[in-house]
């Protein structure tokens, strides 16, 4: 039971313990250990940690400020689940989040049915979910190429505007489309230190000159893939992904990741056919709004 654990702040010298706990959770739940760990390194965060009598870290939660939001995340050792530890962590986190101003958001790198039931029991509802998929680049690349007559153009200052126009056309009708102006999307895309312009590619019709689709990349990640509605069904998305993977592998990458929204099964099927497999489902939850 939770009373068997000793509770207190995580402490600044716990990076190895957090990594070990994240790996134990990943082995059961999936997800990305490195992403989970990064959320516990915020020096301004509020934390609580549960330890056994022997001092082993078996549960941890953190509340940190991200913009105008109080972001909650946590982990419970699989061997300690079903004993009320997760409930204790969540109740603590919701109370701690109340000391911040702004909206409360709970995020997880590997939501499970049990965790989802717990979150819902505290009045939280899922507002976003996406599957993280991985491909091994040590073997042969998928047999997919863009159709004949389609040319690949690498990201460059003079092509940035064309990338944005295809992005807007490809995603405008998707749920949650932010409607950003070009400057904000370009800053979001290329402002990251890990952005890879050399692996980010625009597909264009070599004859007519129309831009058809795009892919943008960061270190080890396929970030966004989009195809204009009128150009879909021609294998352009698959060809763009394979071209990006080819470039990534040529520069030494041994694997690549991408994420696909849970409400976009068509894209998920394309990636699965290319050899990507799901390694975890990340999700966000927020307090249910009164109607």
UniProtKB/TrEMBL annotation:
InterPro entries: Acyl_CoA_acyltransferase, Bact_Acetyltransf, GNAT_dom. It comes from the Bacteria. Residues 8-157, 150-291 form the N-acetyltransferase domain. It holds the Pfam family Acetyltransf_1. CDD domains: NAT_SF (cd04301). Keywords: Acyltransferase, Transferase. PROSITE patterns: GNAT. This is N-acetyltransferase domain-containing protein. It comes from Phytohabitans aurantiacus.
